[in-house]
Write a structure and sequence with these properties.
Blueprint: H1 2-23, H2 30-47, E1 51-54, E2 68-69, E3 79-82, E4 89-90, E5 95-97, E6 99-102, E7 106-108, E8 113-116, E9 120-122, E10 126-135, E11 139-142, E12 146-155, E13 157-160, E14 164-165, E15 169-173, E16 179-180, E17 186-187, E18 191-195, E19 201-202, E20 210-211, E21 215-219, E22 225-227, E23 235-236, E24 240-243, E25 247-249
Parallel strand pairs: 1-3, 3-6, 4-7, 5-8, 6-9, 7-10, 8-10, 9-11, 10-12, 11-13, 12-14, 12-15, 14-17, 15-18, 16-19, 17-20, 18-21, 19-22, 20-23, 21-24, 22-25
Antiparallel strand pairs: 1-2
Helix pairs in contact: 1-2
Length: about 250
């Protein structure tokens, strides 16, 4: 069944093009036909999205179908769940998926970039040696994963609830939600936090955060940023810069 779905993804554009060419009246014109083609392509592709869980039964190779349950290779429309398997994951090139849920185990990016374009949760485990990009009208929840990799987040909602960032971190919030980060995070690389939405972004609502490098905070919106909010014992070991208004802190 999965092989069938993957084949459908591969040949879907040709099938739609044949359907439109042979069933839609010529009087509608090429422009309208192309518009209909793109609409059907996007809608149909989403219908064939799958969810894969890493098992690592054979090797560390992301592109080995038998390392995933069900058998297959995740594509840009698919969601993945990463758990501790027989082997960790090694990327062999820049890769895009729809969603990431990191429950345990290790992803070695091998100097490549892993991109997600929908909701992500990082509960535990380790991601290392490359770059993670999370981008779109989505939420990103950091709840315990250790990142030995560059992390770039551009999302509507961002929650920081106890992760370790050993490389640089960029956060750009765009949405209207009130994002209540509990804290308990440690930042070892340069950290940049920006609010472009009209919602609030809260750090350290109950647990302390530790910043061991430069921290840049920029509020470019009508929303608020709360740094070192209600958590006590926050530590800032590097230079801290503020840009914009409505940035509040119980520390500074």
């Amino acid at each position: 069944m999965i092989k069938y779905l993957n084949m459908k993804k591969t040949f879907l554009p040709l099938v739609l093009l044949y359907f439109i060419s042979n069933t839609i009246p010529r009087s509608l014109g090429l422009s309208l036909k192309l518009t209909l083609f793109y609409f059907l392509l996007i809608s149909s592709t989403n219908c064939f999205s799958s969810s894969y869980t890493w098992n690592g039964n054979i090797s560390t190779n992301w592109n080995d179908t038998t390392n995933w349950t069900p058998n297959g290779i995740p594509s840009s429309t698919d969601s993945i769940t990463v758990v501790s398997g027989s082997n960790n994951i090694n990327l062999s090139g820049n890769t895009t998926v729809r969603q990431i849920k990191m429950n345990s185990g290790t992803i070695d990016l091998q100097s490549y970039t892993l991109t997600a374009n929908s909701d992500c949760q990082f509960v535990s485990g380790t991601i290392q040696n490359g770059k993670i990009v999370i981008s779109g009208t989505i939420s990103a929840k950091f709840k315990g994963t250790t990142f030995n990799a560059v992390v770039h987040v551009n999302a509507n909602s961002v929650l920081l609830n106890g992760s370790i960032f050993n490389d640089s971190l960029t956060i750009i919030k765009n949405g209207s939600s009130g994002d209540l980060g509990k804290g308990g995070n440690t930042f070892y690389g340069v950290t940049s936090i920006e609010n472009n939405g009209n919602g609030s972004l809260v750090l350290s609502d109950s647990l302390p955060d530790t910043f061991n490098n430069t921290l840049e905070v920029n509020n470019a919106s009508s929303g608020n940023i709360y740094l070192a909010h209600r958590g006590t014992g926050n530590i800032f070991n590097g230079k801290v810069t503020f840009k914009g208004s409505k940035i509040y802190s119980n520390y500074y």
